[in-house]
Each structure stands twice: as structure tokens, then as C-alpha cells.
Prior knowledge:
By secondary structure, the chain is α+β, with helices and mostly antiparallel strands. The chain folds into two domains: 41-198, CBS-domain (Roll); 204-358, CBS-domain (Roll), CATH 3.10.580. Helices cover 32% and strands 15% of the residues. It has 13 helices and eleven strands. The chain has helices at residues 33-48, 71-80, 102-115, 118-125, 133-140, 156-166, 191-201, 203-206, 249-259, 279-287, 298-301, 321-330, 351-359; strands at 65-66, 85-90, 95-101, 170-176, 183-190, 220-221, 263-267, 273-278, 314-315, 335-340, 344-350. Strands 6-11-10-9 form a four-stranded mixed beta sheet. Strands 1-2-3 form a three-stranded mixed beta sheet. A two-stranded antiparallel sheet has the order 4-5. β9, α12 (321-330) and β10 form a beta-alpha-beta unit. α3 (102-115) packs across α5 and α3 crosses α10. The longest helix is centred in the first third of the chain and has 16 residues, at 33-48. It starts with 32 loop residues before the first helix and ends in a 36-residue tail after the last helix. This is CBS-domain-containing protein.
Amino acid sequence: MNANLSPTSPKVRRKPSARRTRAGSYMQPTQTQETHDAALHSIRAFLKGRTSYDAFPVSFRLIVLDSQLEVKKALQCLLSNGVVSAPLWNSEKSLFAGMFTVSDIIHLIQYYYHTSSYDNAVTDVETFRLESLRDIERSLGVATPPLLHEHPNASLYDAAKLLIQTHARRLPLLDEDTETGHEVIVSVLTQYRLLKFIAINCTRDIQILHLPLRKLGIGTYVDRAPSDQTPEGQNPYHPIATATMTTTVFDVVHMFSEQGISAVPIVDENGIVVNLYETVDVITLVRLGAYQSLDLTISEALHQRSPDFPGVVICGASDSLGTLLQLIKKRRVHRLVVVEGEGRLLGIITLSDVLRYVIGEVGIKESLEPPEEPPNGAGTSTSTEAQTEPSDAPA
């Protein structure tokens, strides 16, 4: 029944209003070093309770190359399958024989540049076998990485420590055939796969990691203030190797080989990052047999780059570790260029830097067992990012 209120009407008693609870703030809680360290401890505990098997994708393919295969055919196999590395197999002894990676091609280019000619390279690569790549490393004075591997049932934490200890960016996982007793290559665990596994399964911990990347010491940064004057002849971005659009491809190849890196930021005269040149870009030239193209400038070589290049991923020094891991969860990322202001180069962050921080320094200086000699002289470099499942970005 509706009542018409007027000055002479009886006083109407109103129901007391229910007080609404005030919504909580959506602002992130204050980040402290204690909460940050607790989140890292939780992630490490999680990895100790999981095996490498757990990190396998639902569907993946594994390319295994015979160590007696010609280098040219091996390279074509990698590129046609969208991967940048593959385990080697000694079919005579039924043994794991190392890894074939883009670094081996970089070393091969260095070798022919210093000791022969590109014409000879074109001829020799037709018959050059994977098992001979170690001889190339020796002639160049490049340290041969130890022939290490892990069992799929080993904890992810132990596998991660081995990746850090050896400075490798991939770890072959080997099992044993119970009937024959022979080794079986099951898969290859990469830094990217491991970090993505963390990003997917440790969501709550990652949300707590809000401290800035540079404050945490993750990455390599230019060791001078932008206003500092660089002496003539010195690298203004030391210790980061850089190039310009007029730098030749071979000069960058030399950086790859000498410094054990897989990408170089391309900067202009003001230090603005304009692109990134990677080892995979060199492989594109080699696949076409264009060894003479190594004398091209970076500007010219970029016109021959694969159209599926994902672009340069950049970040700021104040971005958080949690944000970076969320990015790894969403897309394939192998390195980030740290910039400031309008895009001036400040640093570079690799997956090695991220994994080293997340896992911690514990055990990094532990001694390793002396590596076994690879069968038939095989056993190759492991210094570039790679993955065994189909790739949608260069490594």
C-alpha cells in the first residue's frame, strides 16, 4: 500500500539502511625483499618436486641427426623443421654424440674465412660431416663444451643447475632402453621451456615478484652514464657488443664466435636501438649458399631476413621480474633489449640471466665430473638458444 506523505501525515519510520562493506583496494601490496625472497624460495621448492618429464609439452617433435650426416643436409633438415638445434647420434656405437647448433655454423664460417676461401667452403660443405666439427673448434681455439646430459626423471631444479653450471642453453635428456641397454634420446630441455613451465605453474609466486629487473641485477647493462664521454676507439656501450647498419655481416659473425653470444643490438648514431641481428639471420644466408654475402652490410642483409622475424622485444630497467615471466608465458621470447628514454640502449637480458637469478647462485661453482670424449670426435657447441618443439621465433 502506497502512502502519500504530507506535512500532516503521520511520521513514517524508515528501515535502517544496510551499510555496505567498502571494497578492498586493487593496488598491489607493498613489495619487500622478504616477500620477494619467499616467492623465489617457493618456486625453487616447486622445481625440486617436479621432473623434466613434467615440463614436456603435450605435443612435440624431436629431430635427431646422425653424426656422419653432411653439414649441408643437417642444416637443411633443421631449417625445414623450424628448429635451430638437434642432438647428434653415433649410429655405429648407439651413443649420444653431442648437439648440432647454429654456433657450429658460425665457427665453420670463421674457419673458412681465416684458413681458406668461400669458394672452397661451398665445395667442402657439400661433403663436410658433422663428426668433424670438433676439429674446427680446435683449430679456432674455441673451447669444446662438455658432453653433459640428464635423465628425464631428474628434478627440474637439478636440471636447471646443470644448465647454469655449464653455461649451456639446452640440456639433452637421455634414458636407457631396458631391453638393449642402449642410450635413448628422449628430448631436449631448453631454458625457454623451463622458464615457461615456471610461468604457467607458479602464477601466485610470480605475481609477488614486483622488484625492478636492474635492481635485482638481472641482465648486462652499459657501464657508464649516458652523459659520460667515451674515449675515442672504445665501445660506448661496453660490455655490450653492438653494431650499426653499416657494419658488415662478418664483423658481427666474429662477435658471435668470439664472445659466445647469439644476438647483437643494432644502434644508430644516437644509441637508439633500431634492430637486432641474430645468428639465425646468418644461417639464412648460408642456407642460400651466399657465403659471399657475409661482406654485405647489416642494412643490406636485413632485406634477406626471414619474413617471420617476430621483432625486437624491449623493456625498461624498472620493469619487474614478474612482468617478464608473464611475457614468457604468452609468447616465445629469448632475449629482451633494455632501453631508456626514446629507445637508447641501456642493457640486454637473456634467458640465461633470468634462469640464473630464479634458480639462485647455490651450486653454480660446484665442480663437474670430467666430460667423456664424444664418440668419433663428435660433440659440438651449445651456445645459442634453441628448442625441440616447432619454433615460431628465431633462437
